[in-house]
Automatic annotation (TrEMBL):
GO CC entries: membrane
Record's compositionally biased regions (Pro residues): 567-584
Membrane topology value: Multi-pass membrane protein
Protein name in UniProt: SulP family inorganic anion transporter
Source organism: Neotabrizicola shimadae
Amino acid sequence: MSSGWGAGSGRRLFSSLRGYRPALLPSDLLAGLAIAAVGLPSAIAYPSIAGLPPETGLYASIAPLIAYAAFGPSRRLIVGPDAATMTVLAAVLAQITAGMPAGQAADPAALASAVAIGVGLTCLAARFLGLGVIASFLSRPILTGFFAGISLSIIVGQIGRFTGLKIQSEGLIQPVVELLRRLPEVHIPSVLLGLAMLAVIAVLKRMNSVIPGPVAVIVLATGLSALLGFSELGIRVVEDVPTSLPALALPDISGVPLDLVVSGAISTFLVSFGAGIITARSFAQMDGQTTDPDRELEGFSAANIAAGFFGAFPVTASDSRTAVNFSVGGRTQVASIAAALALVLVILFLSDALRILPVPALGAILVAAAAGLIDLPALHRLWQVSRTEFGLAIAALWAPIALGVLQGVGVVVGITLLHVLWKMMHPRDALLGLRPGRDGFYKLHRTPDARPVPGLSLCLLEGSLLFFNADTVRARMAEIAMDLPAGTRWFVLDATAITQIDTTAATALDQIAQDFTALGIRFGLAELNAEVRDLLQRAGVLDRIGRDMLFEDLGDVLRAFQRLDPATPPPSPVPPQPDPRLPA
């Protein structure tokens, strides 16, 4: 199936470039230069979140872009380093290092590359298993909260870069406490420089400047460093920037427990793919297109495997780089290739200039990027629209702060599972009735003038019946039965929305029928779908209910009950219109 936002269902290399027109080349080349300019600051800054050298970020902005252009479905999505993914990677590397045998150590850059390959292989496995559906597993509200929590962790993590201190504490509060205790040791010039660069980013953003704030900071801070000699003033500078391109190689992780690498790759995959697919969908909607998560898994797999083999770390879809591609007018993945080639030239010819880039400026870039992850308007909308989902977002915000990023990932997945299971365990129900002079059946609690049919109770169950909600549904039916008016002779369950049922639920449904029979009320079923009907037939439930209490639709129920009680209002013909019994 075509992804819509790409080149169709073809599987050949560079399928997204099929039908490329030379007339698009100027705009794609211009977009590529803009992507490289905007991506350069984050490429240098983001590796420090995970304690990696700057060159890994540059490498992560070259090979993965070309790999995604070759295998990815989207014409305009740009991959690259991502702050949230880097924070998860930092926790993964810490966990792997802690799990190493005593006396052994591993190169963090090699570990990061191994995790990137693991993420790529996980994407590939998910693609072959058709698990692109997990893109919808982590909901936007939960990711909104989770990214806000990660962003606060990133901001606190920049205290050392802003102050020149080596902060030993971890977490959200302890580093701040340590800073207050060591205030006399703070390097004031570093603080002033970091705050000034942060102000530059904020001012340019407020002015809607055509020059991105991080780009301005890189140029300005590097120029000031060359002019004033920041390293002589005690301000830390980057120093280590590569002068050559990475070679294709398998990362050396001999002696590293493989299970830790695999579990770390899966944790990183959950966050990076969850964030990446949201970015892909958001920009696809702007373009009037759709995405195919399974096809995106192919592109992300190629990008991460390429990152791992070329000395980089896990990558995902980059919202900032993709936004630049859209704003400048890039139309195809030629823009990605042009951006990668531009960064190759930076490594070959501008590495000396990048060596004197002051570390506080990188801290300012990271703080600005992290602040951009905190979506306060989205949290406010959640508060207004759904207090439940707002609570889930706050829980997801709290998890990485209180428990650590990796444990936070587990908590977020757990919260999602519990939320889904809770909703499935408690399917909604509604009693139905008729409206005077109107056709069809209406929910009594939602339609003020709807009235129940005397002696007949119609109930719509809005969800499937499965082992984990069978007892809950039976208890709910018992509550309804106790509240039925005196003289009720029939209770018919509208099974329109029961699309699945298992043997446990079939037994529960049989017991529900017996419960009503014990109260002197006949139990019936209406609008069973074929799969549900077949299972209930094999289980013998339909025979025990009785064929005369099985109905094609609610109109049949009403006609059958009218024959039993001629005083019952006759059913009105149902015109072709949306079913009013289903949720609005």
